[in-house]
Design brief:
Layout lengths: L1 E6 L8 H12 L4 E5 L5 H6 L1 H12 L3 E7 L7 H12 L10 E8 L4 H14 L3 E9 L6 H19 L34 E5 L7 H10 L8 E5 L15 H4 L8 H9 L4 E7 L7 H9 L13 E7 L6 H12 L5 E7 L5 H21 L7 H15 L7 H9 L10 H13 L3 H10 L3 H14 L1
Parallel strand pairs: 1-2, 1-3, 3-4, 4-5, 6-7, 6-8, 8-9, 9-10
Helix pairs in contact: 4-10
Length: 462
């Protein structure tokens, strides 16, 4: 069989994921793997119609497609995402229809679920038959049981194709509405309290729902001079992140454009940041993804500490829980900032949208004035522990700036350092070996935490 491998890494042949593909190729020499360097060649795919058509014909003439990618800021790279946009823009969905497909990724498992959900949903939108997905750690090739898993994954993929097995679908097609938002005038403006508000948008066209929602939000404030609306098209971004990792030493991006200066001097110096965009496919635009990817020159170090972050989105967001998780994770997990809310036009009621935007403006100022940062949920707590462990360990030599930050700000909060708990737990574990003590301990276990909390309530209520 001929398998088209869509390489989603801008690093081309230097992609770690591609080495896993090479491993599979060596194990199954009876099949031909045709590597298409999608992300690396995205500029050529955009500008050269003949090259794009040649690539699509390679896919059309293959027996199956393997999406191979590393994670780039919680999902696939901007370059990969732009190729997916081009499929629809150039009406080439037919080349993918009814083809069997699978997804293979490598990462440190930081939100790899988002990346795989995204690729699977795209494959299903293209009417492909999704066989399976495999998310690997960057070092799994060194482990015997994982090598066995890789071989089984590939074997199962080939068998599924040869046997023409039925495959399940998890994602329903997105339904876009034709509702036209008509904002009303603002009667009561919100005092900005001197807070600097930055609104970033990828929609410079006029009379769209998104453009009108952004304008209505801006008009909610009494001092528009404190509100800066910037279009992504106006930021000097020469291209997407190339994964060189040189920023890992001192947060210095190797690109010779204006993005890093803009991010440091405008984004990071704002008190409130509102990201606005339209649902495009299963994400926002690839242009937005390029912004997120390029902001990674701050590595795994939070760069928007203490900011209030919100979103204004046009389109079927409620049908895209994966995108909702991405937006929440971008503010909750990656940054020590506050995720305020996401306002959409899905209600198809202009008055309700006006009220939502007005309430959003009130809350975002109130939260900023009080320095309110919600405690992290699973997305933030779990994500931090992945970064903490790997930056302290195997990735420290690469992400040295992260290591210095984590060390300086007590981010290396390993449980082994909690000596009081360790000693207390050791004592209690020895005592519970005594049957009588163990019975008393477990009989009282339900009420002990509550009694402790009651003492704390009394202490901090006075």
């Amino acid at each position: 069989m001929k398998i088209s491998v869509l390489n989603g890494s801008p690093k081309g042949e230097s992609s770690i994921t591609l080495q896993y593909v090479n491993f599979i190729q060596n194990k199954f020499p009876q099949h031909t793997f045709h590597i298409l360097h999608i992300a690396r060649n995205i500029k050529k795919l955009e500008k050269n119609d003949d090259y794009f058509k040649t690539t699509i014909n390679e896919i059309r003439n293959s027996d199956a497609v393997l999406w191979a990618f590393g994670l780039w800021v919680l999902v696939v790279s901007a370059q990969y995402m732009r190729f997916i946009e081009l499929i629809w823009e150039k009406s080439e969905q037919e080349a993918f229809k009814n083809k069997y497909t699978a997804a293979l990724s490598t990462s440190i498992h930081y939100f790899d679920n988002i990346a795989h959900n995204y690729i699977r949903s795209i494959a299903e939108d293209l009417d492909m038959k999704y066989a399976d997905g495999l998310s690997l750690d960057i070092m799994d090739l060194t482990k015997e049981y994982q090598r066995q898993n890789i071989v089984f994954f590939a074997e199962n993929f080939f068998n599924t194709i040869q046997q023409k097995s039925a495959t399940s679908k998890l994602f329903m097609p997105l339904k876009y509405n034709t509702f036209k938002y008509q904002p009303s005038s603002v009667s009561n403006t919100v005092n900005t309290k001197g807070k600097k508000i930055l609104v970033l948008s990828d929609d410079s066209s006029s009379n769209t729902n998104l453009e009108k929602m952004v304008n209505r939000f801006v008009q909610s404030f009494d001092t528009v001079e404190n509100v800066n609306v910037v279009q992504l098209d106006d930021i000097d971004i020469k291209g997407g992140c190339m994964g060189c990792m040189r920023c890992g030493y001192d947060y210095h991006c190797q690109y010779k454009d204006g993005f890093a200066d803009f991010y440091n001097n405008y984004v990071r110096k704002s008190d409130i940041i509102v990201f606005s965009g339209s649902v495009k496919g299963r994400f926002l635009s690839a242009k937005w993804k390029s912004f997120y990817d390029r902001a990674f020159f701050w590595n795994h170090t939070p760069s928007l500490i203490g900011k209030q972050i919100g979103y204004i989105i046009s389109g079927p967001l409620s049908q895209s829980p994966n995108l909702i998780e991405y937006l929440e994770a971008s503010s909750f997990a990656r940054q020590d900032s506050n995720h305020v809310d996401i306002i959409t036009d899905e209600s198809e009621d202009s008055i309700e949208i006006d009220n939502l935007l007005q309430s959003f403006a009130v809350r975002i100022i109130r939260y900023s004035e009080n320095g309110y940062i919600k405690p992290k949920n699973f997305l933030g707590v779990g994500g931090h522990k992945i970064f903490r462990d790997d930056i302290w360990g195997r990735l420290r030599m690469i992400w040295q700036a992260d290591h210095r930050y984590f060390k300086r700000h007590s981010k290396y909060d390993f449980p082994q350092k909690e000596y009081g708990i360790r000693i207390g737990s050791a004592i209690m574990m020895m005592l519970t070996k005594i049957p009588k003590f163990r019975n008393i301990f477990y009989n009282n276990l339900k009420d002990m935490p509550v009694k402790r909390m009651q003492r704390l309530i009394d202490k901090y209520s006075s």
